[in-house]
Amino acid sequence: MIRLGVPSKGRLMEQTFDWFAARGVTLSRSGSDREYAGRVAGADGVSLVLLSAGEIPRELAAGRIELGVTGTDLVREKLAGWRSDVAEIAPMGFGRADLILAVPECWRDCVDLDDFASIARDFRAAHGFRLRIATKYHRLVRAWLAAHEVADYQLVDSQGATEGTVANQTAEAIADITSSGETLRANSLKILGAEPILRSQATLFANRASLDKARPFLAQLGIAI
Amino acid sequence: MIPKHDKQAVGQRFLTAFREAGAVEVAPDILLPAATLLDLYGEDIRARAYTTTDPLRGEVMLRPDFTVPVVQMHMTEGAEPARYCYLGEVFRKQDPGDERPVSPRDNEYLQAGFELFAHDPQADAEVFALFHRLLSPYPLRAVMGDMALLMDAVRALPQADARRDALLHHVWRPGRFARLLSRFSRPAAPRDLPDTAAAWAGLRSRDEMDARIARLTADRDAGPLDPVWIARLERLFAIRAPLPVALADLRGLMGEWPDLAPAVRRIEVRTGMLSSAKIAPESVLFDASHGRHTMEYYDGFTFSFAAESRPDWPPVASGGRYDALTAVLGRGGRAIPAVGGIIRPGLVAELEAA
């Protein structure tokens, strides 16, 4: 049996259902909207598991599902050494979002990461503590800033309403996912630099140890691995 | 697989030797306040140290090294000169990035350490000679460096203060340092920083921004750094040779760069002290960039002992001078000259078993 994990609600679920339907496999929620059970038509030996998108990386890595649909951002943030445990099978072309670093729009002297590094150094000297970046993507942001040798900053955890932290003076900058950038603009923040920290989209992943088992189903979807 | 008990026994041997060298044994806490370590080391420490929370004390970290608690203890209770030694576990996590490592490093291991707080110019040589003597039975390569040499070199560049300060600040970050240097060697490109209608937001003040813009504007008038200085810096950073050869290279460089003289003289004096301690200078590798890849806050003499047969290992012992750390921990107040190092008894036990 191939267990396919799919986000349990919202646009991500609907677009996932559409993606599989376009490949001849009909996924549906059984019973009422409140019940997290699913049905699969058009493929043998496949069962549907509806899960929170945030839990799919962990379930994939543990092998409790063989295939799963979730964002590349969540897999990379939540699974240390992700490539050893899961394989990226197919980008699905929706759920696109960029993980970006944003600073107050009023900082007209801050255009790129070199400016940011220099401002962080000044800020630390002036205020006696490190410039704060609010985010929930701790590992990704830390690794990216380390790779660019930015020092003098600290991460502060923000699990929601991250864009508001600058106005509330609990952070000086934010690192968050954005698709249109509208919320950022509404909060007088601007995206730093041309390249995001990560470009994310909904992606079909497989548990690496289950690749052989999943091969026939993936072939049916038109994916050769 | 060597039993922990055996590693502990090796550690006890070093601890005894440190005590015989005049050190007082101390036993710092394992749970340390996270805020101090974060302020010192930044986010890198969060990637390396285990963090947990205490309902009353807030965020705490499992001891990632002994230096901070020993320095804090000395600053509240001690008087110079003071020698301390310790033996205990440190805890380090490894965040593997995209792929799991084939052979993960140890997450908890013993450190046996010796720290010396003294204004004495002989302190560097004393610590190095002690480690050298204790480690001489093992096939290890002794390497030393000197961050003060590099910092003196940067200070001597014919550059405006703002540029010098930026270079000094990033001397431990080779990529950022190289970017700055290459920017300073080109004619400054005027920055277009258009006004914005956005309302002011956040804790960073408009005055802080104006001060930085004034600095950027002033920098526009600064002439580019003559490429000859970049070539000299590159030659300096690349010196990596047995100590007497490295000293000859340094003296050669000093001919075109007289400001290096005091730092070179300090290294000569230190080398003389090592010879007096019966350490052959030609057996020690001098690597000018050695301290750039170690912990920030090493700001003088640095050293390590690496197992030549095991390039996959971290150094079996390492240490250096960290006067800057005591200044930061002392909140800009008291700075105490300090030098010290650690040995990893677990690795020594493996060398003995091999």
TrEMBL record, chain A:
Lineage: Bacteria, Pseudomonadati, Pseudomonadota, Alphaproteobacteria, Rhodobacterales
UniProt KW Transferase keyword: yes
PANTHER family assigned to the protein according to its UniProt record, in alphabetical order: ATP PHOSPHORIBOSYLTRANSFERASE, ATP PHOSPHORIBOSYLTRANSFERASE ATP-PRTASE
CDD domains: PBP2_HisGL3 (cd13593)
Protein name in the entry: ATP phosphoribosyltransferase
Keywords, ordered alphabetically: Amino-acid biosynthesis, Glycosyltransferase, Histidine biosynthesis, Transferase
Gene Ontology molecular function terms on file: ATP phosphoribosyltransferase activity
Pfam families hit by this protein: HisG
Gene Ontology biological process: L-histidine biosynthetic process
Stretches assigned to the ATP phosphoribosyltransferase catalytic domain: 53-214
EC number: 2.4.2.17
Listed pathway(s): Amino-acid biosynthesis; L-histidine biosynthesis; L-histidine from 5-phospho-alpha-D-ribose 1-diphosphate: step 1/9
Catalytic class of the enzyme: transferase
GO CC terms, sorted: cytoplasm
Catalytically driven reaction(s): 1-(5-phospho-beta-D-ribosyl)-ATP + diphosphate = 5-phospho-alpha-D-ribose 1-diphosphate + ATP
Function: Catalyzes the condensation of ATP and 5-phosphoribose 1-diphosphate to form N'-(5'-phosphoribosyl)-ATP (PR-ATP). Has a crucial role in the pathway because the rate of histidine biosynthesis seems to be controlled primarily by regulation of HisG enzymatic activity.
Domain of life: Bacteria
Organism this protein belongs to: Paracoccus subflavus
Entry keyword tRNA-binding: no
